[in-house]
Amino acid sequence: MLGIDADTLALLQDLQSQYGNVVGLEKENGRQAVFINDAAEVRQLLVKHHSKYRKGPGFERVKMLLGNGLIVSDGDIWRRSRTMIQPAFSKKNVHRLITLMIDCTQKRATAWEEIAKAGGKLNITQEMSDFGLELILRTVFGPDYERRVMQDGKNPFAFLSRDSKRDLRVVMQLRELRELLLSIIAERRAADDVDHFDFLTIYLSATDKSGNGFTDDELLDELMTLIVAGYETSAGTLNWAWYLIARNADAEEKLLQEARQQLPEPTLIDKESLADMVYAQALLEETLRLYPPVWLFTRRAEQDDGFTDFDLRAGTDIYLSPYILHRTKEYWPDPDRFDPDRFGPDSEYKKGDRPYFPFSLGPRRCLGEYFSFLEMKVHLGLLIQKFHMTLATNVEPELELGINLRTRDDIFLLPNLREQQ
Fold first, then answer.
1. Which domains does the chain have, with CATH numbers?
2. Can you give the pTM of this predicted structure?
3. Is 395 helix (H, G, I), strand (E, B) or coil?
4. Of the candidates 244, 236, 105, which has an alpha carbon nearest to the alpha carbon of residue 164?
5. pLDDT above 90 coverage of the chain, percent
6. How many helices (H) and strands (E) does the chain have?
7. 69-114 confidence digits (pLDDT tens)
8. 287 to each of 36, 183, 236, 290, 376, how far by Cα in Å?
9. CA-CA distance, 300 to 59, in Å (whole number)?
């Protein structure tokens, strides 16, 4: 049975090993399915032929969690929402959030310094979850984060970063936040003098081609999608990035030298200095190659399509795995080796033609990709200058293969303060 689990990964890897990069199979329910691991055909399906497919099996769980937001919606509903939301993630708007990214990173630095001075261990998995969640909540709610979300000193969203399971219990906890969010939305709708920038403000002002905005229910689904997906992607990637940095001294040194040159002072950080963090970008892209946040994408054909060797009939389920494609020797020599130079200026692949899709491809490519890279470069660029990380254990983390690719157990690092230059 194909699902979002370790057995499915093992099955797909075995099929690819035995039969190649395009494999047809029949599922237990009799439905036809195809696993596609050919890079050109993955790009064809997600870019040129995307309109012939909708979300496939496995998204029921995501829909229970997030409602009918941008990640799970299809057709006209998806096109309307995408068009309304896209302006929020323009580079100009994301650049307005750089100061907030710096503030959240500096908060981590203060806490880590105390742990380093005490000779303690750092639970980097939990730290990255807390960092990612705080940042996304602040970017969504602006001043309402402190005034409304944290009004009793406790974060009602904390369960998202404390429990990696995305089961029915988490669904119910998210639904319990409905009244809080509706009250914040109602207060914002009634305000005439909103003079601050945050994602909620932009979402509330967004309109479709008929001049209609989001209803409260639509807005709730989109906010939940932004919060959960927005924090999980960056938190998970940074968790793996810190682990890989701690294991690879050469990569750490290159990142450190670049950070010292491009980000010497937090007050000097801007869009230009972050754009010049080319090694940090390559390091993060290599991290995403090895550990893509969404390790399995599914689609279902809505009409017959013949772009591949298989005649994809309407109703066929399609399985695509960034995790497997990114570790296929045909495309990535020595694929299990961590090597950021694969994405450097001398890379054999041009940016628009890589066998690589951690954020999907085509019209459904993640809108928050640029935001995510920017926050991760701020985070790594500032903290690598303050701390040298070593592994608390040499045990390699095992994978937790749920909706998102996580470490099964938390990663612990030993932070050591650097001498400041």
1. 6-417 (1.10.630.10)
2. 0.94
3. coil
4. 236
5. 75
6. 18, 10
7. 888 888 999 999 999 999 999 999 999 999 999 999 999 999 999 9
8. 23, 39, 10, 5, 12
9. 11
